[in-house]
Design goal:
Chain lengths: ~300, ~300
């Protein structure tokens, strides 16, 4: 067992999280949340998505969000970019890092972004090229790595193939998403091992959902392989569009609690993080959706 | 990593769970729950506690519960016994297995059962002796193994010492409880490793709480040591008396989901288990408190 001594947390609540909440929040609330998350010591705070507000009303005002946040020098604030038009908005906002979103499942890609995996990669080729020309860093998401809501099991080889293509296009990090949370520890390990045959481990991130309660166990499993980047969402923001009563993204608070308990450094102040989680939960009119938040406050 | 190929689940919802629910349920409902759990394939279904109903009104009617359940030949139905009077009720009920309850924390023992650890062991000496004379099996609980609500950290050596004493008195299995759910994977491993220096691994059970969301990660950690008995509570029955908004016992559904995903045999039918969880949650007028139950039903 070789656990990393440090883990980089990529906080996705303000984008991936809020994007999937039914209650839209104002630009000001988003800015406050992002600043609180950065103040809590999170090194990467995904801040917005440059998609059409026609499709994702929750992400309206992304340019204003970026212009509004007081950026800290040592924090990255990536923005999701679906296409060239999104990249243009991102560049206009002064974004320094973007993320693109692919999937290891054909059916999911069709239903989610209305094209084949091949077409999505082709579309991103131009986006990534232009982003790199503009000195942006590019992160690649691959979803459905441990199961697909339409196809069920997904071959790890397919995950590796899509990941490698994004990596070859210039993504500096590949975030491997268990989009429906059906993964369990051994499968999570096997998937990461397969991808790591093609992409160095330090370039991989685990983006696990807690829908079936498995996320921390899966994270502990892949930490043992040396994975040292974890995506998570403050207060479990986001829920799960495929199981209405259930949790989606693993809560950052629970991840930090586990890492703290194992002496793994993250630089995150759990109390400040809990406050940020409480702030946004209050704004959404619901209880915190992290176990640590519930244990501490409710 | 040497995961066991089979795991024995000790279902504690009908006792440890219901005992900590604020809504008492009738003897008939308890009987139905116990029978549903046994029908789901659980090999051990803790059925009642022979404590005074003056102290624990939720456990009133334990003798009637035992007389009412149609026992399956291949299922154990242990009953908790706090003292000689409890043992007499247990014997009157025809119980074949009892459990006694100690703790690795002095303060917790004082507050919980109003005596020192030493006094509790002395009290159990007579109970266990008499139980063994009557051909009952005896299981020993040790609580606060990964933290105490009053003392904080608990030395694993203390856990090992209390466990060894119960084992020496004749307990065939020692259930190691993370009573407040503050354990994390490495600490859970270290605690089990320490106890396993004194008691063979097949005689140890992990009884972990999910208060901070850590239970499955902790279970995955100790499964890797070869732990092959897990205590859990259908639909997360029980809550946590030390953190009102939080979860207590890890939900059996979530444990089974993880073990199924890893190909570890339990003999439990997840669908029937989910039905049992739904039944008792409906009786208590609340949503299921397992992630799998929420993902499937709500």
């Amino acid at each position: 067992m070789s656990l990393p001594s440090k883990v980089k947390i990529v906080e996705v609540g303000a984008r991936d999280g809020l994007q999937n909440e039914s209650t839209p929040v104002s630009v000001d609330v988003k800015i406050s949340l992002i600043e609180k998350l950065a103040d809590a010591g999170l090194p990467v705070v995904e801040a917005a998505s440059f998609v059409s507000p026609k499709w994702v009303p929750q992400m309206a005002g992304s340019v204003d969000v970026f212009k509004g946040i007081k950026q800290k020098a040592n924090v990255n604030y990536p923005g999701l970019v679906p296409n060239i038009r999104g990249l243009e908005s991102a560049l206009e906002s002064g974004v320094k890092e973007i993320a693109v979103f692919a999937a290891a499942s054909e059916s999911f890609t069709q239903k989610n972004i209305n094209c084949s995996i091949e077409e999505s990669i082709n579309r991103y080729t131009e986006v990534i090229e232009k982003a790199l020309e503009n000195d942006l860093k590019v992160r690649g998401y691959v979803s459905c790595t441990l199961g697909c809501p339409y196809e069920g099991e997904i071959a790890s080889e397919k995950v590796a193939e899509v990941s490698k293509r994004l990596s070859d296009l210039g993504c500096y990090e590949i975030s491997l998403g268990d989009t429906i949370g059906t993964g369990t520890p051994i499968k999570a390990k096997q998937m990461i091992e397969t991808v790591a045959k093609h992409i160095p481990m330090p370039q991989l991130a685990a983006h696990f959902h807690d829908t079936y309660g498995q996320a921390l166990a899966n994270l502990f499993a892949v930490l043992q392989l040396g994975v040292s980047t974890i995506d998570s969402s403050v207060s479990g923001l986001g829920g799960c569009p495929y199981a209405k009563g259930a949790t989606g993204n693993v809560a950052t608070e629970d991840v930090i609690y586990m890492l703290n308990g194992m002496g793994i450094e993250t630089g995150v102040d759990l109390d400040k993080l809990l406050e940020a989680g409480r702030f946004i939960s209050d704004q959404l009119g619901r209880k915190p959706n992290s176990n640590v938040g519930l244990a501490r406050y409710v």
